[in-house]
């Protein structure tokens, strides 16, 4: 075989002037090779620019095509690959035809047809080769999926403990499928080499038949001879490949059987070892029981002389009786759902968890003239409007705030992160996840009474304890503090401002949320976006979230900017879309987050960023991020069965108002109007609600009179306090991070609960 490169290039170039029509194809094939890498025949992906016919006005337009996993997709630009695919065709059932030197057509039978044009004939041939390989592979995979499991029927393999056998069987099948796929690729390449080699030989024979004289004829004969040598070498390689293919196909069944036998033997060994371990455990327990019996007998012998021999016989009988009556194996259930470790017990015994309720009484179907109530409320603060319970859901705002912990495991994962930037992704996902419970929840939570509290002790199940207290009534403000054994603390004070605008209701949460992690002392803050309830008067109620959030790590300076896109009828984006970018203190992007606030969030690591793409709304160029494959960081849990009749509560929400022993007298679970509403007794609930609100107003007027009597002459009338109320479990102070006036948990609640001493708690119900 001649050396590639220089000799052949010089030979062809030297006869350029004499036979331009003959040599132009050869020069194009030889000299254009370095420009674009040839696609790997067995590769999974091939990308490049191709011209696609659009219409008679615009003609052929340049598009970015991606061939991957048997699918050919195209985009307007490379930047669109992350979010907008313009079209995809499955090659498994497609036909590929060549029109002329640069044009080719791909069709799946009429529904989709792509008329494409490459930049040159060589580029067209590369795409044809890659497409034929991908088509053969896709058709082969489709055939395998139709008869998958023939070689390894599920019933023929014994299940290994803990599903290990299933995993091993899957690995064996995957390895065999990969090997078979590579062998089929080799067969396809074999056919392509033979096909293209024959075409090359025919072309060279046609050149030789022209009978050129002089130096040009010599060069043509030299090229023909070298092509013949290449053909001989290729044929030898093809024959060797064919032999290997035949050998692999002949022995594949035998290899599969051998692998299956080895796997089954390994499974049997694992089962035997597990049985031996259980028997060893049983013998140890029996031996300890016999030792304790012997020690007891020795004590009896020392106390009662003259009975030593009888006692020894009794001990021996007891030992053997225990062996005979004991089960063959001792099984210790370690299911994490019904059992948990009692961390306060020094013996670390397994203690059953409390079984939580999974249903509440169905919501009654009571009619109500909404407009008769709402027409006088336009423009007013919602918290100052007396509302019947018909608009409510049977939980308080304190319990609704506690629902932010629905996906507390995101903070558990964040606490384990080594990188602060990756930790930021989990914290940002947690900030989004709190809105997933609102998508169908159009009911209004009960406004908490001043001094009302709500505790959620899930330390044994999930490692955290949560406490909320209503620390102000006008404006309504709730302080929330959560401490977790898994390395994080969450605190927030939320004041809700709301306005009724006639057609919709806007709810603006004010206040800052703090998440502090013990590892690295990372301190994050963020705020909440605006919630809008649409179709208040006419139509079906629906909820939207809109606005922007900045999650800031005050320890490192990292920042994540999240944008909640408002719903728009004319937008082509996905509804409820959320996007975000995680940047370090220098403004360099490291992660991109995308998803929806009602379904899931994903994050991708940024490898490179550049200015480009379409211009934004303000004429600025958008930033294009080149990222790795996206990873799912959060997904919404499915709603429980029958949720539509239970106010669309989640599994956690169903348990929030469940009665519990030992909670404080001010806990929301003890609120009578809320309990009556949950039980479906709405008329009684409305009467009880009015009683509680009047009692609260009377208490407020009494505090104002006391505050007025305590004013000193040095205090101006404007700066004098109008209410001397102080929260029971939270102290008012200035936040060292934000400078805001907030309420911080001062401690003592859980200790008071353990003692059961609630004498200092106010009687608000």
Give an account of the 3D structure:
With 765 residues, the protein is of the alpha+beta class. It has a 7-stranded antiparallel sheet, with helices on one face. The protein has a 6-stranded antiparallel barrel with strand order 15-16-19-20-18-17. A hairpin with a 5-residue loop joins strand 24 and strand 25. 22% of the residues are buried. Residues 667-708 have a biased composition (Basic and acidic residues). Belongs to the OSBP family.
Largest sheet: 7 strands, antiparallel
Average pLDDT, rounded to a whole number, is 79
Structural class label: alpha+beta
Distance between termini? 98 Å
Measured on Cα atoms, how large is the radius of gyration? 38 Å
Per DSSP, the total helix count is 15
* Coarse morphology: elongated
Strands in their spatial order, largest beta sheet:
4-3-2-1-7-6-5
InterPro entries: OSBP_sf, Oxysterol-bd, Oxysterol-bd_CS, PH-like_dom_sf, PH_domain
Main location: membrane
Subcellular location: Membrane
Keywords: Lipid transport, Lipid-binding, Membrane, Phosphoprotein, Transport
Compact overview of the structure:
The protein has 765 residues and is an alpha+beta fold.
Task: Compile the SSE list and pairings.
Elements: H1 6-14, H2 20-31, E1 45-55, E2 59-68, E3 71-75, E4 87-90, E5 95-98, E6 103-107, E7 113-117, H3 121-146, H4 164-209, H5 214-303, H6 308-325, E8 339-341, E9 350-352, H7 370-374, E10 392-396, H8 397-402, H9 409-416, H10 420-433, E11 444-446, E12 453-458, H11 459-462, E13 464-473, E14 476-484, E15 488-500, E16 504-510, E17 513-517, E18 522-526, E19 530-534, E20 542-553, E21 559-564, E22 577-583, E23 589-596, E24 600-615, E25 621-627, E26 631-635, H12 651-656, H13 672-678, H14 682-709, E27 730-734, E28 741-745, H15 749-755
Parallel strand pairs: 10-11
Antiparallel strand pairs: 1-2, 1-7, 2-3, 3-4, 5-6, 6-7, 8-9, 12-13, 13-14, 14-15, 15-16, 15-17, 16-19, 17-18, 18-20, 19-20, 20-21, 21-22, 22-23, 23-24, 24-25, 24-26, 27-28
């Amino acid at each position: 075989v001649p050396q590639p490169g220089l000799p052949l290039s010089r030979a062809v170039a030297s006869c350029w002037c004499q036979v331009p029509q003959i040599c132009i194809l050869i020069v194009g094939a030889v000299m254009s090779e370095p420009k674009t890498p040839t696609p790997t025949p067995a590769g999974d992906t091939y990308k490049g620019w191709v011209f696609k016919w659009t219409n008679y006005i615009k003609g052929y337009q340049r598009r970015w095509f991606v061939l991957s996993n048997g699918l050919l997709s195209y985009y307007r630009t490379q930047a669109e690959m992350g979010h907008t695919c313009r079209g995809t065709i499955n090659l498994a059932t497609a036909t590929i035809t060549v029109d002329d030197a640069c044009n080719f057509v791909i069709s799946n039978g009429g529904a989709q047809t792509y008329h494409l044009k490459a930049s040159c004939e060589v580029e067209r041939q590369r795409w044809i080769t890659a497409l034929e390989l991908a088509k053969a592979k896709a058709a082969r995979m489709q055939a395998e999926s139709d008869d998958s499991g023939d070689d390894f029927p599920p019933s023929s393999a014994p299940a290994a403990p803990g599903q290990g056998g299933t995993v091993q069987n899957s690995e064996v099948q995957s390895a065999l499928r990969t090997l078979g796929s590579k062998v089929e690729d080799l067969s396809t390449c074999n056919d392509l080499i033979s096909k293209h080699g024959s075409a090359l030989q025919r072309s060279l024979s046609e050149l030789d038949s022209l009978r050129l004289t002089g130096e040009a004829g010599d060069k043509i004969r030299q090229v023909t001879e070298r092509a013949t040598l290449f053909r001989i070498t290729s044929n030898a390689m093809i024959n060797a490949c064919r032999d290997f293919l035949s050998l692999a196909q002949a022995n594949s069944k035998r290899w599969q059987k051998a692998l299956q036998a080895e796997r089954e033997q390994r499974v049997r060994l694992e089962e035997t070892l597990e049985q031996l371990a259980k028997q060893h455990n049983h013998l140890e327990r029996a031996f300890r029981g016999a030792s304790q019996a012997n020690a007891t007998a020795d004590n009896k012998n020392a106390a009662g002389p003259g009975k030593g021999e009888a006692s020894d016989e009794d001990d021996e009988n007891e030992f053997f009786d225990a062996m005979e009556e004991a089960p063959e194996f001792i099984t210790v259930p370690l299911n994490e759902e019904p059992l948990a470790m009692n961390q306060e017990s020094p013996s670390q015994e397994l203690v059953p968890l409390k079984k939580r309720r999974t249903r509440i009484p169905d919501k009654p179907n009571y009619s109500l003239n909404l407009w008769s109530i709402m027409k006088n409320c336009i423009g007013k603060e919602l918290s100052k409007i007396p509302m019947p319970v018909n608009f409510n859901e049977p939980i308080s705002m304190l319990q609704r705030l506690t629902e932010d912990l629905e996906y507390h495991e995101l903070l558990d994962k964040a606490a384990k992160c080594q990188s602060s930037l990756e930790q930021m992704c989990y914290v940002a996902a947690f900030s989004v996840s709190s809105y997933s419970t609102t998508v169908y929840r159009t009911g209004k939570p009960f406004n908490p009474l001043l001094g009302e509290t709500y505790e959620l002790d899930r330390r044994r199940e999930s490692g955290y304890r949560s406490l909320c207290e209503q620390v102000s009534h006008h404006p309504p403000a709730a302080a929330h503090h959560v401490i977790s054994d898994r390395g994080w603390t969450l605190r927030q004070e939320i004041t809700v401002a709301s306005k009724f605008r006639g057609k919709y209701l806007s709810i603006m949460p004010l206040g800052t949320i703090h998440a502090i992690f013990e590892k690295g002392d990372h301190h994050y803050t963020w705020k909440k976006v605006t919630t809008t309830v649409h179709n208040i008067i006419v139509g079906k109620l629906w909820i939207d979230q809109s606005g922007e959030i900045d999650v800031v790590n005050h320890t490192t300076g990292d920042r994540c900017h999240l944008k909640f896109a408002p719903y728009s009828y004319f937008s082509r984006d996905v509804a409820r879309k959320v996007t975000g970018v995680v940047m370090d203190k220098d403004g360099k992007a490291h992660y991109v987050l995308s998803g929806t606030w009602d379904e899931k969030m994903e994050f991708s690591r940024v490898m490179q960023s550049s200015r480009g793409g379409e211009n934004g709304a303000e004429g600025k160029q958008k930033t294009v991020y080149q990222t790795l494959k996206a990873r799912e960081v959060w997904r919404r849990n499915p709603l429980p069965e029958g949720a539509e009749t239970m106010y669309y509560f989640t599994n956690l929400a169903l348990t929030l108002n469940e009665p519990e022993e030992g909670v404080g007298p001010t806990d929301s679970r003890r609120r009578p109007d809320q309990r009556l509403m949950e039980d479906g007794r709405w008329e009684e609930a409305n009467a009880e609600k009015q009683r509680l609100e009047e009692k609260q107003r009377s208490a407020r007027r009494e505090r104002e009179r006391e505050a007025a009597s305590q004013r000193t002459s040095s205090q101006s009338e404007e700066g004098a306090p109008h209410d001397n109320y102080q929260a029971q479990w939270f102290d008012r102070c200035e936040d060292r991070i934000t400078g805001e006036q907030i309420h911080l948990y001062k401690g003592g609640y859980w200790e008071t609960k353990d003692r059961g001493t609630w004498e200092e708690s106010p009687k608000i119900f």
